[in-house]
């Protein structure tokens, strides 16, 4: 059967930019899957998605005008229901056949086949293949219904409806035209009050012709680019914007201005690039600038206001410092762009002036003078105000500091307390009130202005870190302590009042906080036990919470387990290490490395299986004393095992205590043969009680030694 390529385009008013790419991908994928399900595509068919501010489209290759007929076997009913004792059709069977378009003559053609415990009747028929018109109508209706629309609009239809001007339709934005081309043939489908044709619209201002006529499905992108001045592909438009940004930055960097001379680069922000791609159909990058006096304001403030409010791309120098140049992605390409650049420069100036005003006003008050104001800010109705929360963070931070070697240094403890006390005070500043994303960052700037020192300033700035996967950790130990205290306060408090994450809902970001705790304990070289951290944090809440230690510890280990698997460790390796609940997370990586090296040894599988067997024996035995009386040995195998244990176990223990976990496990690998011989020749559960307890005690000693680094039984297949 011959096939042709298919194009579907829905032309609408400006779509929500942050949802555009998802809308385009969903529209094309659902169309393709629906056509495929109806047998209208070929094995080599492929779909290409298009999405611009005013259109959603899909190009699908190798689409048939008519799907092939399909043989279908349908279960009707049990034989005992469909046939009477004489084998004749019952009224129920005849009625069922009639509903399928078959008469009594079809009874003889029915098949009998087992269906569970009974036999059933099956009817074989040929279903006519769907026509493209019918199949595409169904697919288009489904694709529109399944669009991930963030917010639906309701608007009235003027044509092709029951009551023009009164009938309404719901969609993301009002739709104005529909294109459906199979090759060069228009497919007569309808959607949203529109009838398909071969006409669309190009750029709102710069299209060469209107309407843009599409000769066939394959010229869509080229015709829109040529006649409509539109780059229809989201991916191609994004790449073109990135190319123009780099070219413009290079051109600006080569200028004579000493401020901008040298290599410049646009700020890297994938989300901003995606959003701007969704705002323009024909990108044109232009250079703009603002007054240098605004550079006295922290660059994070200027960058944020330019990105968030104006969708501009600030330019940074080679050192990452903001310049007074920025790039604008325009949707028009005038011969004289001065009006466009001048307009953007006028628009950004008040925004920057606001940022400067906030910065100047905020510095008139010290962070310390704002501490009392935190008592007026509600944090949680069960956990009190931000002032109470600050008191808890201070107490927890002091407790963590006491667990560290630096805890004996009064200056260190004082810095920790100062940073913990002031960490949340920037929430009361005008700048953070306008730009909540700058919390912590502005606290660092204001701390430096107050003369609090770089260590405390960095700690205040960093105490939210790590904020997401891959984010950097706090830059100094004071910052790590305060960040740990802040995250533990949230975790202990929320678990203590039973406010836990459920499914995909985690309004207090407890999973992220737990991962932050894991990363800081694992990567910041803090020799602190997890249970000690949680235990010293709980008293800070008084009687506001119930003890959450067990649930919170389990939650943190779950996050650790998931993170380790994402790093490439196998489920068996992770289970082996975490089964012991190692309290010092800083050595989990070393334990995993040791387990991986052990698992590669030829003796590993047998020892893991033996370890599992030993564990089962001891579990059934109940409480077993790890004590051995050599005078009770009767078998050569138990004497041989004990003898080699006396030699190897002290060596393995010494290596373990020295932190050489890999060597410790590899030393134990020598035990394979004597362990195998023991289980072959020795009856552990002997009838004589003293022999049984002695052999169980021997196994208990071996089990404790084998499972110092990890639970090796988890490696058993």
Q: Care to describe what's here?
A:
The strands form seven sheets. Strands 2-3-1-9-10 form a five-stranded antiparallel sheet, with helices on one face. Helix 10 packs across helix 15. Residues 256-260 have low confidence and may be disordered. The chain is flat, with a radius of gyration of 36 Å. 46% of the residues lie in helices and 14% in strands. It is α+β, with helices and mostly antiparallel strands and 717 residues long.
Provide the fold topology.
Blueprint: E1 3-12, H1 20-37, E2 47-52, E3 55-64, E4 70-78, H2 79-82, H3 91-99, E5 111-115, E6 118-127, H4 132-145, E7 153-156, E8 168-171, E9 175-182, E10 185-186, E11 190-191, E12 194-195, E13 199-200, E14 212-213, H5 220-227, H6 234-253, E15 265-266, H7 270-277, E16 284-289, H8 299-310, E17 313-316, E18 322-330, H9 338-362, E19 378-380, E20 384-385, H10 386-402, H11 410-422, H12 430-434, H13 441-449, H14 454-462, H15 477-496, H16 510-523, H17 530-537, H18 549-566, H19 571-578, H20 588-599, H21 604-621, H22 636-657, H23 661-668, H24 672-681, H25 689-706
Antiparallel strand pairs: 1-3, 1-9, 2-3, 4-6, 5-6, 7-8, 9-10, 11-12, 13-14, 15-17, 16-18, 17-18, 19-20
Helix pairs in contact: 1-4, 6-7, 8-9, 10-11, 10-15, 11-14, 11-15, 13-14, 14-15, 15-16, 16-18, 18-19, 19-20, 20-23, 21-25, 22-23, 22-24, 22-25
């Amino acid at each position: 059967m011959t096939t042709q390529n298919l194009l579907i385009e829905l032309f609408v008013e400006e779509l929500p930019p942050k949802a555009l790419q998802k809308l385009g991908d969903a529209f094309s994928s659902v169309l393709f899957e629906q056509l495929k399900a109806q047998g209208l595509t070929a094995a080599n068919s492929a779909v290409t998605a298009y999405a611009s501010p005013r259109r959603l489209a899909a190009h699908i290759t190798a689409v048939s005008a008519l799907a092939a007929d399909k043989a279908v076997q349908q279960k009707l009913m049990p034989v005992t229901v469909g046939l009477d004792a004489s084998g004749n059709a019952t009224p129920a069977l005849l009625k069922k056949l009639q509903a399928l378009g078959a008469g009594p003559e079809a009874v003889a053609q029915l098949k009998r086949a087992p269906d569970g415990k009974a036999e059933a009747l099956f009817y074989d028929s040929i279903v006519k293949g769907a026509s493209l018109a019918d199949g595409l109508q169904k697919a288009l209706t489904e694709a529109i219904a399944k669009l991930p629309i963030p917010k639906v609009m309701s608007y009235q239809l003027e044509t092709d409806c029951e009551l023009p001007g009164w009938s309404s339709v719901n969609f993301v934005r009002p739709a104005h035209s529909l294109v459906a081309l199979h090759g060069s043939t228009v497919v007569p489908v309808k959607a949203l009050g529109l009838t398909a044709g071969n006409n669309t619209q190009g750029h709102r201002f710069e299209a060469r012709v209107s309407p843009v006529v599409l000769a066939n499905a394959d010229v869509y992108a080229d015709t829109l680019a040529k006649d409509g001045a539109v780059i229809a592909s989201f991916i191609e438009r994004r790449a073109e914007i990135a190319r123009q940004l780099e070219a413009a930055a290079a051109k600006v960097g080569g200028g004579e201005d000493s401020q901008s001379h040298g290599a410049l680069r646009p700020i890297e922000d994938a989300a901003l690039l995606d959003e701007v791609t969704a705002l323009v159909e024909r990108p044109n990058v232009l250079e703009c600038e603002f007054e240098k006096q605004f550079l006295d304001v922290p660059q994070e403030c200027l960058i944020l206001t330019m990105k968030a409010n104006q969708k501009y791309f600030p330019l940074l120098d080679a050192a990452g410092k903001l310049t007074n140049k920025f790039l604008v992605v325009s949707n028009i390409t005038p011969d004289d762009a001065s009006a466009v650049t001048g307009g953007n420069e006028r628009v950004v100036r008040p925004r920057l002036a606001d940022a400067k005003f906030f910065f100047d006003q905020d510095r008139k008050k010290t962070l310390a003078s704002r501490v009392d104001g935190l008592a007026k800010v509600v944090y949680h109705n069960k956990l009190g105000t931000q002032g109470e929360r600050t008191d808890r963070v201070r107490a927890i931070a002091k407790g963590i500091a006491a667990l560290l070697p630096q805890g004996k240094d009064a200056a260190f403890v004082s810095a920790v307390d100062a940073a913990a006390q002031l960490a949340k005070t920037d929430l009361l500043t005008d700048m953070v009130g306008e730009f909540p994303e700058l919390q912590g960052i502005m606290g660092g700037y204001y701390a430096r202005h107050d003369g609090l020192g770089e260590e405390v300033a960095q700690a205040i700035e960093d105490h939210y870190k790590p904020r997401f996967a891959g984010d950097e950790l706090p830059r100094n130990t004071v910052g790590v302590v305060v960040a740990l205290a802040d995250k533990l306060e949230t975790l202990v408090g929320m678990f203590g009042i039973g406010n836990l994450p459920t499914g995909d809902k985690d309004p207090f970001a407890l999973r992220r906080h737990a991962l932050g705790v894991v990363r800081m304990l694992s990567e910041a070289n803090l020799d602190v036990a997890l249970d000690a951290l949680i235990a010293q944090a709980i008293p800070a809440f008084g009687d506001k919470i119930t003890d959450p230690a067990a649930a919170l510890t389990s939650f943190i280990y779950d996050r650790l387990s998931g993170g380790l698997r994402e790093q490439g460790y196998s489920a068996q390796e992770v289970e082996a290490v975490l089964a012991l609940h190692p309290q010092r997370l800083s050595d989990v990586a070393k334990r995993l490395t040791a387990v991986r090296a052990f698992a590669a040894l030829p003796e590993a599988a047998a020892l893991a299986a033996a370890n599992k067997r030993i564990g089962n024996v001891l579990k059934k035995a109940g409480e077993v004393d790890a004590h051995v009386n050599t005078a009770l040995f009767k078998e050569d195998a138990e004497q041989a095992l004990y003898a080699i244990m006396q030699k190897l176990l002290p060596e393995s223990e010494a290596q373990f205590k020295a932190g050489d976990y890999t060597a410790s496990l590899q030393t134990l690998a020598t035990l394979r043969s004597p362990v195998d011989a023991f289980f072959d020749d020795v009856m552990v559960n002997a009838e004589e009680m003293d022999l049984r307890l002695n052999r169980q005690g021997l196994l208990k000693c071996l089990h404790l030694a084998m499972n110092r680094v990890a639970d090796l039984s988890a490696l058993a297949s």
